[in-house]
Specification:
Elements (H helix, E strand, L loop, with lengths): L1 H27 L1 H7 L9 H19 L4 H22 L3 H5 L1 H16 L1 H6 L5
Helix pairs in contact: 1-2, 1-3, 1-6, 2-3, 3-4, 4-6
Length: 127
């Protein structure tokens, strides 16, 4: 179904755009990312932010490639779960900060559901 594939790639593209901006910022300008990040209780060291950016970039690349997209989605779910846990731990605003990783994860899996019939067979939501 061509329409489903287009919807899937639009959703996945939005997720990938956000992840690329986040990973790129952590890789290229970690000091800026540290300065504008909420206090999450992790060390404000550029090397740590670059490592997080590299992990996120690898997960996003795996998600972008159709052959490895399911693995990428699983790894992104873990990464985003860690972000949710960190925001929850420090008492960040629930709907704007804490649950943002959940929103992004739902979009990522939704995009994959639309673009991959194997995922639709595994998770039969409609019909």
């Amino acid at each position: 179904m061509k329409r489903d594939n287009i919807i899937g790639w639009v959703l996945s593209g939005l997720v990938l755009l956000f992840l690329a901006m986040d990973a790129g910022g952590k890789l290229i300008a970690p000091a800026t990312m540290i300065a504008y990040s909420p206090p999450l209780g992790i060390p404000g060291e550029p090397g740590l932010y670059q490592q997080l950016g590299l992990i996120l970039a690898v997960c996003a690349l795996l998600y972008a490639v159709p052959r490895t997209a399911v693995l990428g989605a699983i790894l992104l779910t873990g990464y985003l779960g860690g972000a949710v846990a960190m925001h929850w731990r420090v008492g960040s605003p629930l709907f704007s900060h804490t649950l943002f990783g959940v929103y992004l994860g739902v979009l990522a899996w939704g995009g994959l559901w639309f673009r991959d019939p194997r995922v639709r067979a595994l998770i039969p939501i409609a019909g």
